[in-house]
TrEMBL record:
Belongs to the transglycosylase Slt family. Pfam families: SLT (PF01464). It comes from the Bacteria. Residues 240-263 have a biased composition (Low complexity). This is Transglycosylase SLT domain-containing protein. The lineage of its organism: Bacteria, Pseudomonadati, Thermodesulfobacteriota, Desulfovibrionia, Desulfovibrionales. The chain crosses the membrane at residues 12-32.
């Protein structure tokens, strides 16, 4: 008599187990149920999305998303995506609601001649984004969703046959030309003491693992070499150890920096979006110029068009904020990018853009390493007493005197903070005594900030106004505000005032003001320089560079609610 391997009961048990396993597989691979009050955003961890270097806010894209969430009552939740394709796939598969933070290459969007996209759907500024993805799959009739067969295929082969369908492209709200960056040295050193990976505290992948910080933050697309994508080294530290060829220092084999380094005999290039290039170049080793290539990339948000609640809200949000009268995008662009030197801009003609002033940066790093430590206690005390970020105070000192305690200008200002005699008398300090000068300068900045309380300014605009008043006096600042209002502006943003201030040097304008002639162009140059140096100092800390050791004692004095204090 034949004895079956499994009894009938065992067969039912195995069948039930198989059903349970299939059910669990579906639970794992299908998107989690969407919470209607949560906005899930897929984005690569780039500087314009979640900032590492800038002290001026959480990030350009994050502030836009925060504005949307505040308007419609959503909670913002990040979903980590390493690149554009992954972000779009996360939205198409239902793991995310919106994809942001990358530019669409020319050809992927149809230009309608006014900076936005064509509109085959009839909705102003809104166009399908799945055309090229569908064409790539050859499946024009595919429908949204994930079938069991597709899930099993994905599990077995590691491929995803599901095309991107029903995705919507929002209007173009920013443009940046891609830049081909190259380096001249034959052997690039690995970045020294750089933070190469995300901490995982602000953006997490679906598997909960932290992302690759430097690579995902910097590179738009990789310029492949025989050894993989090229990633630049960082600016060599002032007085720090130099890496000799073959030296085992910094990241070790298997780390992202080593894996991404180009082969010695391969091309030393990387393709970077224009914004990332400008923001990261001050920290790059051998910051040679970058060549603008191709047409400008258009930045958009992408979302599913089949969400009857979310999709109309996103379309409405972008109609409002791309209207000519709306200034949100202009104000954010000014705050996050407006202080960068013109030499870091990407020209329209495709010629090589000039590099950052390497001598100025090396001077800053030398001062941080050699002079700042002697004044760090005084800076910390003054900053704490006046509720000012000590790094901003250090940026002001560097701009004023390069930490030269005997500095003297042709206009008569003197000392490490370049105070006038009248200001020193008002503050009851000896301007030639470094500690007193720093204390007096910090107190004067606080007095100027407090004097602007009646204007109801946004915190950073108020600090930029404060710096302008520190340079040219509070009377001339008020003249610039009134002149801007007379010319049709609001007089409430630095974006407007930086255009108006230089007019105070021209008779046709300063003759209409209370305090008369003013070197307004110097005020603008002063504010923008301080903003730039403040950005660099924060970047040195964020990248854990050797200079950060000298800046670390200042960080305990940062006000809790800075800059809104």
């Amino acid at each position: 008599m034949h004895n079956p391997i499994f009894t009938t009961g065992e067969r039912f048990a195995l069948f039930g187990l198989a059903i349970a396993q299939a059910f669990l597989l579906l639970l794992i691979l299908l998107p989690a149920p969407h919470e209607s009050d949560v906005l899930r955003v897929a984005a690569p961890a780039r500087e314009r999305v979640l900032t590492r270097l800038s002290p001026y806010g959480p990030g350009f894209e994050q502030e836009l998303l925060t504005a949307f969430c505040a308007r419609y009552g959503y909670e913002l939740r990040w979903v980590k995506a390493d690149n554009r394709d992954e972000a779009l796939r996360l939205v198409a598969d239902g793991y995310a609601d919106v994809a942001v933070g990358f530019g669409a290459a020319p050809g992927g969007d149809r230009d309608n001649g006014n900076g936005g996209d064509s509109d085959p759907t009839g909705a102003s500024g809104i166009a399908p984004a799945a055309i090229e993805a569908t064409a790539a799959t050859g499946d024009a009739d595919a429908t949204p969703g994930v079938s069991l067969a597709a899930l099993l295929t994905r599990l077995a082969t590691g491929t995803d046959p599901t095309p991107l369908t029903d995705l919507v492209t929002g209007p173009a709200y920013d443009h940046a030309r891609p830049v081909l960056v190259r380096w001249s040295e034959p052997d690039l050193p690995a970045p020294v003491n750089a933070v190469l990976r995300d901490t995982g505290t602000t953006a997490t992948a679906r598997d909960g693992q932290p992302g690759d910080g430097l690579r995902s933050a910097l590179l738009l697309t990789t310029w492949e070499t025989s050894a993989g994508p090229a990633v630049p080294g960082l600016l060599p530290p002032s007085g720090g150890p130099s890496l000799l060829p073959g030296a085992q220092s910094g990241p070790q084999p298997g780390d992202a920096a080593v894996d991404a380094a180009p082969a010695p005999d391969g091309p030393r290039h990387a393709m970077v979006d224009g914004d990332s290039w400008r923001l990261w170049q001050p920290f790059m080793a051998e910051p040679t110029a970058g060549q603008a290539t191709g047409k400008a990339l258009s930045y958009h948000w992408y979302w599913r068009g089949d969400d009857a609640t979310l999709a109309p809200r996103l379309a409405e949000f972008w109609r409002e904020h791309t209207a000519p009268a709306d200034t949100l995008l202009d104000d954010l662009t000014e705050r996050y990018f407006g202080f960068l030197p013109e030499s870091l801009g990407v020209p329209e003609d495709g010629e090589y853009a000039g590099p950052v002033d390497i001598f100025d940066l090396m001077d800053l790093m030398t001062v941080v390493a050699e002079k700042l430590p002697n004044h760090a206690p005084a800076i910390s005390r003054a900053a704490a007493q006046s509720n000012i970020d000590p790094l901003l105070l250090a940026a002001v000192i560097f701009q004023e005197s390069r930490f030269d305690t005997s500095a003297r200008s042709k206009t008569g200002v003197r000392g490490i903070m370049q105070l006038t005699q009248n200001t020193a008398l008002l503050l009851k300090v000896n301007r030639m005594n470094p500690s007193q000068s720093i204390r007096g300068g910090a107190r004067y900045l606080r007095m100027l900030w407090d004097s602007l309380d009646d204007l109801d300014l946004q915190p950073w605009d108020r600090w930029f106004f404060t710096l302008a008043a520190f340079n040219q006096g509070p009377g001339h600042l008020r003249d610039a505000i009134r002149l801007n209002q007379d010319l049709g502006g609001t007089g409430r943003t630095w974006r407007e005032l930086k255009d108006t201030f230089p007019k105070l040097a021209r008779p046709r304008y300063h003759s209409r003001t209370r305090y008369g002639y003013c070197r307004g162009y110097e005020a603008v140059a002063f504010v923008e320089s301080v903003r730039y140096y403040y950005y660099i100092l924060n970047g040195l800390v964020a990248l854990s560079r050797p200079e950060a050791e000298h800046l670390a004692p200042l960080l305990d004095a940062v006000p809790v609610r800075w800059p809104a204090i």
